[in-house]
Automatic annotation (TrEMBL):
Stretches of the chain forming a coiled coil according to its record: none
Cofactor: FAD
Keywords, in A-Z order: FAD, Flavoprotein, Monooxygenase, Oxidoreductase
Residue ranges occupied by any FAD-binding domain in the UniProt entry: 5-336
Name under which the protein is recorded: Monooxygenase
Lineage: Bacteria, Bacillati, Actinomycetota, Actinomycetes, Pseudonocardiales
Signal peptide: none
Organism: Amycolatopsis tucumanensis
Length: 470
């Protein structure tokens, strides 16, 4: 039986999954229909939990070196921003980096780890057989079939894998279209990013590398079920001028596009030997800039599990926990992007009052602002568990000689043994003895904590309770 894993799609999700699977010792083939990477970048933002994920494998530095750190996020482009200094993380920033560059760095990382990435190879279908799944591919030299132990559809919102596996993708169709222009501005807004919400629409302007600005927004006439025609520079100019009172001297568009609030989620993230991750599993309005982030975090959850199963070290039903853990995260993603869409299109006087009220709450109620920031940043994701720490993502605990994230670089479970007299080693885990230097009462009350390869807490032994690892 083959132990190869086939990934359809070399977007951010597929590339990170490929690297994770290689780290777990699996053979990986990534099939990507495009011969060249898309030069247009949908995503610009990388959030704190994603930077933590990268740091847990020691590959965050190239992105941190190139990205522009922004110490805040936003909810529905409300005037008062979410202060990321409130977050308990080593990376309290939104990192602005073009998706094309993020993908390039992720692809380098996956290739360095030995992933076989084939461009110009389009997945056309699949059939399941005892012990394997056969994937049909349209490649540069014609059609072929490749056998795999498992196939992961990371092939975006129109996923061929999802359709071939017969997994439903219910949700709501588009009722709002946003517009986007990457343009040169001869008279740009004075400092950093700019936003404005009026009865004529909502506009966000963000500087991009290479002298461009991204202008993105919605106007009242974009609330419609039918897709408008191609966006032109003249239309963009008219919409921006209606909202901002000027066009910022826009010219030379590098990309003009539209996007919608169609929101859908796969009913199952797993069917037999087929799994889904990233946009193939969930689609939504790009509000708050989170889709790429959630895709990478899907891949982080799935990678070590799939690796353990193909190595024969875990039963196949471990893969069911991928659906159980990540489907609720996808559902929450749809919920908060839909809520933001309602606010971003609240053009009426009453709607603008609602925006103003919520913005004031963000400014004046730190606990409210922190809750929103934790959701946006990905730090609040918690999987099931009895103890308050179980299922949470462990922060980067500091020890004298190392940190938790450094201990996670190998992609193996980490047993933190805080006792003065350490217990025996746990099979398969990296064991670290010693108390963290951090002043954290919840962690100080533990004897041991077992951390999963994806950085979430698997189990803990409170001080004085019988050791689960003996
Ligand atoms: C306007 C806009 C702005 C956004 N801004 C942000 C942001 O700031 N931050 C953020 O986190 N997210 C943002 N997003 C969302 C983000 O771009 C996506 O969530 C992200 O690209 C999903 O990655 P993915 O790898 O799952 O899917 P994709 O990026 O869609 O990649 C799928 C890949 O699969 C390939 N493929 C498709 N079908 C096949 C096939 N049959 N065979 C082989 N290959 C196939 C495609 O060519 C593609 O390369 C934005 C989206 C939009 C539209």
């Amino acid at each position: 039986m083959t132990k190869n894993i086939v990934i359809a799609g070399a977007g951010p999700t597929g590339l990170w999954l490929a690297a994770e699977l290689r780290l777990a010792g699996a053979e990986v083939t990534v099939l990507e229909q495009r011969t060249e990477r898309d030069p247009h970048s949908k995503a610009l933002t990388i959030h704190p939990r994603t930077i933590e994920v990268l740091a847990s494998r020691g590959v965050e530095q190239p992105l941190l070196a190139e990205g522009i750190p922004i110490p805040q996020g936003h909810f529905a482009v409300l005037d008062d921003r979410l202060d990321f200094a409130l977050l308990d993380t080593d990376f309290p920033i939104t990192l602005a980096l073009l998706q094309a560059r993020t993908e390039e760095l992720l692809e380098d990382h996956a290739r360095d780890r030995g992933a076989d990435i084939r461009r110009g190879h389009r997945v056309t279908g699949l059939t399941e057989h005892p012990g394997e799944v056969r994937v049909t591919v349209d490649g540069p030299d014609g059609g072929y079939t490749i056998a795999a132990a498992y196939v992961v559809g990371c092939d975006g919102t129109r996923s061929t894998v999802r359709a071939a596996a017969g997994i439903d993708f219910p949700g709501t169709s588009a009722s709002v279209y946003g517009w986007l222009g990457d343009v040169v501005l001869t008279d740009p807004p004075s400092a950093g990013s700019y936003s404005r919400a009026t009865a004529d629409g909502l506009l966000l302007a963000v500087p991009l590398p290479g002298g461009l600005h991204r202008l993105v927004g919605h106007s009242p006439d974009d609330i419609r079920a039918d897709r408008p025609g191609e966006l032109t520079l003249d239309e963009l100019r008219a919409k921006v001028t209606a909202i901002a009172g000027r066009d910022f001297g826009m010219h030379s568009p590098a990309w003009l596009s539209r996007f919608s609030n169609a929101s859908r989620q796969a009913t199952r993230y797993r069917r037999g030997r087929v799994l889904l991750a990233g946009d193939a599993a969930h689609m939504h309005m790009p509000a708050g800039g989170v889709g790429l982030n959630v895709g990478l975090q899907d891949a982080m959850n799935l990678g070590w599990k799939l690796g353990a199963v193909v190595r024969g070290e875990a039963p196949d039903d471990l893969l069911d926990t991928y659906h159980d853990e990540r489907h609720p995260v996808g559902a929450e993603l749809l919920e908060h992007t839909q809520a933001q869409t309602a606010l971003m299109t609240a053009f009426s006087p009453d709607g603008r009052r609602l925006r103003s009220l919520l913005s004031t709450l963000i400014a004046e109620q730190p606990a409210f602002a922190k809750t929103l920031a934790e959701r946006l940043s990905g730090l609040s994701v918690r999987y099931a568990g009895a103890h308050p720490l179980t299922g949470t993502r462990a922060p980067n605990l500091k020890f004298g000689d190392t940190t938790l994230f450094r201990l996670l670089h190998a992609g193996r479970p980490v047993l933190l043994d805080f006792r003065d007299e350490p217990g025996p080693a746990a099979p398969g885990a990296i064991v670290h003895h010693g108390r963290p230097l951090d002043d954290r009462p919840d962690w100080a009350a533990l004897d041991t904590a077992l951390i999963r390869p994806d950085g979430h807490v698997a189990e803990v032994t409170p001080s004085g309770e019988p050791d689960q690892h003996r």
